[in-house]
Amino acid sequence: MCTSLVEPYGWAFLPDLLLEEIFSQLPIKNLGRCSQVCLNWYRISQQDYAWRRFQYKDKMFTRRKYTSHAGWQHMIDHWKLRFLIVKATTKWRVLEIEPVTILFNLYEFIRVLTNFSEYYERNSAEKPLQGIRSFSFKWQLHVHVRGENQTERVFGTGGEMLKTLSLLLSHLHGLTELSLHELQLEPYECNDFIDDILYKFDSQLTSLCIINLTKVYRPFLQLGLFLFLEHLTVSPQHLDESIVILLADLRHLKSLIILQNDKTFGAKAVDSKAWQSFAERNTHTRVHLIQAGKRQNTLLIQPKAPVYAIIFDKSTGQLTSELTEEICHNYSTTLQFFLQKGLERRYRSREFTKRVDIFAIELAHRCRSFFFLSLFFFFFFF
């Protein structure tokens, strides 16, 4: 215990900055337990920095309730949720919503949070959610379909969930970073949604991440209209020639990441003329190609794009002779980094000429600006 009789040393008396950083990484349940250890830890747990990042996960703020049709269920506890929102929302700076299995609880969380902000904005000058600078929403709903090959069916975020999410975004007045993952919308659902985001944050966002917003190929011209955007991460099915031309005129854009994963379908490469025009008009943006996911598909090459780095992030994709030739043909003067994170086991020919390290050496030899190569967790510098 921390009393006046105990000398000020040990875990209880770590520097405030260090304790705040530790507490900011803890889940809410652990943070509450730490606040009961001693007076000093209780004092630190009440600081704003310890609550700056809030991550909503499955079964948070729930209690078990027995229902006659489904047995014991984790139902949302509105009293706990109300207590959290009233006490902590003004301290939040980062709000993250992770994929969940109980959709009704997620819907209730967003609805209650939105109603809370709407009430104060209507009846006073307060804006409880104005302090949130970063918002991340990740969606993942897979339903196993019985029958042939036991396939999975992916459901998107449309309907009431999408309306509630859009309404919540309208109350995040101080937002500068927005990340939307795997919403998997139908083409007719996304038009108003992306327009609302542009209308609200056109001159405010500095970082935007949109991964698989739709299930099919659907370019969004709005991506090139966020005037002060510095970092853009987007799936290749949301790009076309017109968008690339618009992105070339964004003066503050530092990085353009084209991310392809196992849920990216219908993506097409942008025409080489558009990328050549982009390279001529824009010399300050670094283009990254990233492939992630377990599905065995090839990296989508953007012809003549000024690609700065290629990354396989825990992906089954690997260097082959065809891929090496395409990379060297299109990016020999611009490519500086090639990274393979988490090499997956995959069948390859035993012939020496088809070994992956042979292609890596060829890549390093033919790309004149090459600087860094990471493969098999070994590092080579040039």
TrEMBL record:
InterPro entries xref list: F-box-like_dom_sf (IPR036047), F-box_dom (IPR001810), LRR_dom_sf (IPR032675)
Protein name, entry field: F-box domain-containing protein
Domain F-box residue range list: 8-54
PROSITE patterns named among the record's database cross-references: FBOX
Organism listed in the record: Elaeophora elaphi
Superkingdom classification of source: Eukaryota
